[in-house]
Amino acid sequence: MSSLFTDPERAERLIDIAQSSLLPLLEGVILYTIPLTLISFAFGLALAVLTALARISTVKPLQIIARIYVSAIRGTPLIVQLFILFYGLPTLEIEIDPFPAAVIGFSLNVGAYASEVIRAAILSIPKGQWEAADTIGMSYSQSLKRIILPQAARVSVPPLSNTFISLVKDTSLASLILVTEMFRRAQEIAARTYEFLLLYMEAAVIYWILCFLLSLVQGRLENRFDRYVSR
């Protein structure tokens, strides 16, 4: 660190590298990190709802399939799941491009973890709500759509928001299957300039800013739902 003060040329070089690498890193965020996060979370959330409903259903085969899926995903590292999709499946002549493989991997991962959140939220709704819906002639699907899921959604906001923020950080693992998101670009620039600490710290700062902004949005959403519930 002290060499930066005694070597003005190196300090100037680091500043130039930081400035020149900022745009490629931001492009990686806009073109890959954010779309990957949004698409994966959307598919994962849909899968989570289906899995949660399967877990609480009275149909045993659905319960078993859902339990096995959740157990398998939660019991294995995300990086292993990504490697199976991108590097493992080609041995079975099933080839998936990097970005779709990342979307599938992250969606399956989010679906398993978020399903437990949604299942707990649904089970937290008093049984009287189901009974009231049945009394006025609502079917099971109508009760879910109009009464149970809207209430469960409010309960699920904080943990699902945390899942979304975690997903933003987890997208860095997509660099290991050749998705040129922000961290991959940081690796490529670092390999050319040999300034690994600088590039990785720059990437870390961008991740931190993204997560900080998302946490602010999360706080506002929670406050809004709290005000709604208190009324």
Strand and helix map with partners:
Layout lengths: L1 H5 L1 H49 L3 H15 L3 H11 L9 H26 L3 H9 L4 H31 L11 H12 L2 H35 L1
Helix pairs in contact: 2-3, 2-5, 2-8, 2-9, 3-5, 4-5, 5-7, 6-7, 7-9, 8-9
Features:
MetI-like fold; mainly alpha; elongated
Structure description:
With 231 residues, this protein is an all-alpha fold. The chain has one domain (2-230): MetI-like fold. The protein has 9 helices and no strands. Helix 2 (8-56) packs across helix 9 (196-230), helix 5 crosses helix 7 (140-170) and helix 7 (140-170) packs antiparallel against helix 9. The longest helix is centred in the N-terminal third of the chain and has 49 residues, at 8-56.
